């Protein structure tokens, strides 16, 4: 691939993400162009800064159908040490390919300004300044600050952890497997590793699986003592279902969309695990499930604000109105799926977000309307080294620079 090819491919990726709401991770999975991947990720990792700089020097609004090119050029100058003239030379044939060579001189003007001038930044510590510095939209910064006044800067300054976390299927094989791959550090549920060909072979063989530390940690907090069966209500892609099935529990694994059901089937086949996989809407009552399960897990759809560094398109695609709709959906799932818990059984609610409106507020609302459920303290022996205080039945983890993502879990017991 030439540099011009990579810029063109990155332009198409970013156009799909910025203009059409495509998911960055999916778009990147569709290309093997390392240059395009690098430029696309770089633009998204510095999106608010780059848009601010480009817009500052533009004397007119740049059309959406060419805007990604300006962001790529700005990224190359700011972060890859290319000169404006080099960037212009690379972008010129791309403009011709797009039938946009008429704006070449405008590109030259913008890129020269970015190279030779210091772009004045907004007032320090203003929301716009923080947006540029930490690559978070100002409304999300405001929401996080409201919920975590003392910790919000630590949360939004968290960087993506560059290593992959894997979980070993068979504990007896763990030591031997880890000795044969590049391990950065072991965790209570697996290890952070360099994601090379050896690791990919392990994954393909089913001896290990990619599973974020937080997701695997959540599984260890579920009380499976004496449990015979478990319902995973929003299960795709299936990692948690497979974890519990490996522990000898009969797992019914459900999702609302057929393509997600197929993902669970594929995952289970690779890991050589038996699941009862069903197409099921978690908001609609299934009479066959009523009072059937010892454990019901509602790992509900959420805003994903605890995993922004893994899903950069969240900063563009999420709106506050989405959180309002999601919190209603989450509560609807809880209100329905609680019917499936046996007396004496457990209902678990979890998200990969950090907002109180999706977590604590939903639980408070649910419990006020369901006196037959109570919060019960979560056993935390598996995480005693990372938990700072006792819990009352719910735990909120916040993202940090050591690979921890933001997630929430609440344990509720049906008492009658």
Uncertain parts: none
Sheet with the most strands? 8 strands, mixed
Give Rg in angstroms: 24 Å
Secondary-structure class: alpha/beta
The CATH topology annotation of the largest domain reads as Rossmann fold
Task: Describe the model.
This protein has helices at 3-20, 24-29, 34-45, 47-57, 67-79, 84-98, 104-116, 127-134, 138-147, 152-156, 174-179, 197-205, 213-221, 239-246, 258-271, 314-317, 320-337, 360-369, and strands at 164-168, 183-186, 191-193, 208-210, 229-232, 250-255, 276-279, 293-299, 341-351, 373-375, 394-397, 407-414. By secondary structure, it is an alpha/beta fold. The protein has 4 domains: 3-116, NusB-like (N-utilizing Substance Protein B Homolog, Chain A), CATH 1.10.940.10; 127-156, no CATH class; 164-208; 214-414, Rossmann fold (3-Layer(aba) Sandwich). Helix 15 links the parallel strand 6 and strand 7 (276-279). The longest helix has 18 residues, at 3-20. The radius of gyration is 24 Å and the shape is globular.
Key terms for this structure?
globular; 416 residues; 4-stranded antiparallel β-sheet; 4 domains; 8-stranded mixed β-sheet
Question: What is the topological layout?
Answer:
Layout: H1 3-20, H2 24-29, H3 34-45, H4 47-57, H5 67-79, H6 84-98, H7 104-116, H8 127-134, H9 138-147, H10 152-156, E1 164-168, H11 174-179, E2 183-186, E3 191-193, H12 197-205, E4 208-210, H13 213-221, E5 229-232, H14 239-246, E6 250-255, H15 258-271, E7 276-279, E8 293-299, H16 314-317, H17 320-337, E9 341-351, H18 360-369, E10 373-375, E11 394-397, E12 407-414
Parallel strand pairs: 5-6, 5-8, 6-7, 8-9
Antiparallel strand pairs: 1-3, 1-4, 2-3, 9-12, 10-12, 11-12
Helix pairs in contact: 1-3, 1-5, 1-6, 3-5, 4-5, 5-6, 5-7, 6-7, 8-9, 17-18
């Amino acid at each position: 691939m030439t540099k011009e090819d990579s810029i063109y491919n990155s332009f198409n990726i970013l156009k799909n993400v910025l203009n059409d709401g495509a998911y960055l991770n999916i778009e990147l999975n569709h290309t093997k162009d390392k240059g395009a991947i690098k430029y696309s990720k770089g633009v998204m990792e510095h999106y608010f800064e780059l848009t601010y700089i480009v817009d500052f020097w533009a004397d007119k609004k740049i059309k959406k159908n060419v805007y990604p090119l300006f962001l790529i050029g700005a990224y190359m100058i700011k972060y890859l040490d290319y000169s404006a003239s080099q960037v212009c030379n690379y972008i010129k044939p791309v403009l011709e390919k797009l039938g946009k060579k008429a704006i070449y001189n405008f590109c030259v003007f913008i890129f020269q300004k970015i190279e030779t001038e210091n772009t004045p930044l907004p007032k320090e510590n203003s929301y716009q300044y923080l947006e540029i510095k930490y690559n978070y939209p100002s409304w999300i910064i405001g929401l996080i600050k409201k919920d975590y006044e003392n910790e919000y800067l630590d949360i939004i300054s968290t960087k993506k952890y560059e290593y992959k976390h894997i979980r070993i299927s068979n504990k007896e094989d763990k030591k031997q497997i880890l000795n044969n791959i590049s391990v950065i550090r072991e965790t209570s549920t697996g290890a952070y590793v360099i994601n090379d060909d050896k690791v990919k072979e392990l994954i393909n063989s089913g001896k290990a699986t990619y599973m974020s530390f937080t997701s695997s940690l959540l599984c260890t907090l579920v009380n499976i003592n004496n449990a015979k069966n478990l319902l995973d209500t929003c299960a795709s892609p299936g990692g948690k279902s497979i974890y519990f099935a490996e522990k000898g529990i009969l797992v019914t694994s459900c999702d609302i969309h057929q393509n997600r059901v197929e993902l669970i089937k594929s995952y289970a086949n690779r890991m050589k695990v038996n699941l009862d996989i069903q197409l099921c809407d978690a908001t609609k009552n299934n009479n066959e499930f009523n009072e059937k399960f010892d454990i019901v897990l509602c790992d509900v759809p959420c805003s994903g604000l605890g995993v922004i560094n893994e899903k950069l398109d969240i900063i563009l695609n999420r709106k506050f109105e989405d959180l309002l709709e999601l919190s209603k959906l989450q509560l609807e799932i809880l209100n329905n799926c609680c019917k499936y818990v046996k007396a004496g059984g457990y209902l678990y609610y979890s998200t990969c977000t950090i907002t109180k409106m999706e977590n604590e507020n939903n639980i408070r609302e649910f419990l006020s309307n369901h006196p037959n459920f109570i919060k019960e303290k979560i056993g935390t022996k598996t995480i005693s080294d990372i938990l700072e205080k006792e819990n009352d039945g719910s735990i909120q983890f916040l993202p940090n620079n050591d690979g921890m993502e933001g997630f929430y879990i609440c344990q509720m017991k049906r008492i009658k």
